[in-house]
C-alpha cells in the first residue's frame, strides 16, 4: 500500500517513522514550510521533513491547500502533485493545514487522521493539553476517517491510555505519539485486508480543545490548588505557566498539592526556605512549587532556585 503522509511536529514524525519501518511505501510527504526558531531565528525544518529527507522521501511544503484561499496558485500546484503521485491513502497527523474536500477526495481509500484523544471527548488543536488541564483520568488515540468537519469523521480504531498524576503534556505526548504510530500501522494493515469497520462518532460528550495561547499561562492563585497544579502540568513544556513576583516574572514548571490551614490570602508565600521549599496559598489549598525559572535563567529545582533568587515569606505572587 502506498501512503502519502501529511504532518509537521514530533508527534507526526513518530507516526511516519512507524509507517516507514513497517514497510509501507511513502511516495510523498507534506509538511509545513520551514519556520524561524531559536535565538537567531534561523529557518528550521519540521521533524517530519527532517525524517523524510534522511530517508530519501520527496517533500512538499505548500502554504495552503485551499484553491479558494490566499494562495490559490500554490494550492493548485499541490493538488496537481497529489493527483500525479500514485498512492492509495493519505495519513494525516498534526499537519497544521486544513484539508479541503478537494484534497480529501483524492486518495482512493481516503484520508486517515491520527488524533490524540478518545473522540469525541476532545476535538481540535490541543487535545493533550486540555485533557490534563480538565483533570481527565484517561485519554488515548483515535484513528478516524477524515471528512470536512473538524475531527468529526467516523472512527476506525481507538485505544485508551491512563493519565497519571505526574503526567505533563510532554510525557503524555510521547506516550500517545508511540501509540499513534503503532495504531496507524495496524490500521493500514487491516485496510490492506479490507477488514476495517467504521463507527460514527456519538453526538454527546463533544468538547473543543482550543489552541493553547500564551495569554492563558498566567496563574491566578484565587483558583483552587488542584486546578492550578493541573494547569502547570498541562502547560509543560509549552508555553509554561508563570506568576509575577514584585517586578519579576517567574516561570513555574512543577508543583505539588498541599492542604493549608489558617487564614491566608491567595498568592501569599507561606514558606521560602531550603527546608520547606516554596509554598504558596491558593483560593483553596496550597501549592509547593518544585521547579522554577527566573528570566534569562535555567529551569531549576526549588532548592537550587532559592540559592540564586530570594523569595520572601509573607510576600505575594500575583
Automatic annotation (TrEMBL):
Q: Which domain of life is it from?
A: Bacteria
Q: Where is the Formyl transferase N-terminal domain?
A: 1-187
Q: Pfam families from the entry?
A: Formyl_trans_C (PF02911), Formyl_trans_N (PF00551)
What is one GO cellular-component annotation here?
A: cytosol
Q: Where is the signal peptide?
A: none
Q: Which UniProt keywords apply?
A: Protein biosynthesis, Transferase
Q: Where does (6S)-5,6,7,8-tetrahydrofolate bind?
A: 117-120
**Catalytic activity field:** L-methionyl-tRNA(fMet) + (6R)-10-formyltetrahydrofolate = N-formyl-L-methionyl-tRNA(fMet) + (6S)-5,6,7,8-tetrahydrofolate + H(+)
The record's listing under PROSITE patterns reads: GART
Q: SUPFAM superfamilies annotated for this entry?
A: FMT C-terminal domain-like, Formyltransferase
| Formyl transferase C-terminal domain residues | 211-309
Q: What is its EC number?
A: 2.1.2.9
Molecular-function annotations in GO: methionyl-tRNA formyltransferase activity
What exactly does this protein do? Attaches a formyl group to the free amino group of methionyl-tRNA(fMet). The formyl group appears to play a dual role in the initiator identity of N-formylmethionyl-tRNA by promoting its recognition by IF2 and preventing the misappropriation of this tRNA by the elongation apparatus.
Q: Which PANTHER family match?
A: METHIONYL-TRNA FORMYLTRANSFERASE, METHIONYL-TRNA FORMYLTRANSFERASE, MITOCHONDRIAL
Q: Which family does it belong to?
A: Belongs to the Fmt family.
Protein name in the entry:
Methionyl-tRNA formyltransferase
Please tell me the species this chain comes from: Undibacterium pigrum
Amino acid at each position: 500500500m502506498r501512503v502519502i503522509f501529511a504532518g509537521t511536529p514530533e508527534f507526526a514524525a513518530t507516526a511516519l517513522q512507524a509507517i516507514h519501518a513497517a514497510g509501507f511505501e511513502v511516495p510523498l510527504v507534506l509538511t509545513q514550510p520551514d519556520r524561524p526558531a531559536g535565538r537567531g531565528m534561523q529557518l528550521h525544518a519540521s521533524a517530519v521533513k527532517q525524517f523524510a529527507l534522511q530517508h530519501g522521501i520527496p517533500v512538499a511544503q505548500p502554504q495552503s491547500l485551499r484553491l479558494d484561499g490566499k494562495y490559490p496558485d500554490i494550492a493548485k500546484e499541490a493538488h496537481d502533485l497529489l493527483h500525479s503521485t500514485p498512492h492509495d491513502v493519505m495519513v494525516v497527523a498534526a499537519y497544521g493545514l486544513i484539508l479541503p474536500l478537494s484534497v480529501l477526495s483524492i486518495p482512493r481509500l481516503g484520508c486517515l487522521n491520527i488524533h490524540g484523544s478518545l473522540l469525541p471527548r476532545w476535538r481540535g488543536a490541543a487535545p493533550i493539553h486540555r485533557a490534563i488541564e480538565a483533570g481527565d483520568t484517561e485519554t488515548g488515540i483515535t484513528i478516524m476517517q477524515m471528512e470536512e468537519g473538524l475531527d468529526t469523521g467516523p472512527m476506525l480504531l481507538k485505544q485508551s491510555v491512563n493519565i497519571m498524576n505526574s503526567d505533563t503534556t510532554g510525557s503524555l505526548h510521547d506516550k500517545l505519539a508511540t501509540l499513534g504510530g503503532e495504531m496507524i500501522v495496524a490500521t493500514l494493515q487491516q485496510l490492506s485486508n479490507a477488514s476495517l469497520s467504521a463507527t460514527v462518532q456519538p453526538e454527546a460528550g463533544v468538547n473543543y480543545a482550543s489552541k493553547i495561547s500564551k495569554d492563558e499561562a498566567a496563574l491566578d492563585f484565587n483558583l483552587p490548588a488542584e486546578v492550578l497544579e493541573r494547569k502547570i502540568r498541562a502547560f509543560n513544556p509549552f508555553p509554561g505557566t508563570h506568576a509575577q513576583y514584585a517586578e519579576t516574572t517567574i516561570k513555574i514548571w512543577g508543583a505539588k498539592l498541599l492542604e493549608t490551614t489558617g487564614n491566608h490570602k491567595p498568592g501569599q508565600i507561606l514558606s521560602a526556605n531550603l527546608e520547606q521549599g516554596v509554598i504558596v496559598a491558593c483560593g483553596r489549598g496550597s501549592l509547593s512549587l518544585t521547579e522554577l525559572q527566573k528570566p534569562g535563567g535555567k529551569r531549576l529545582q526549588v532548592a537550587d532556585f532559592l540559592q540564586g533568587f530570594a523569595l520572601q515569606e509573607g510576600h505575594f505572587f500575583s
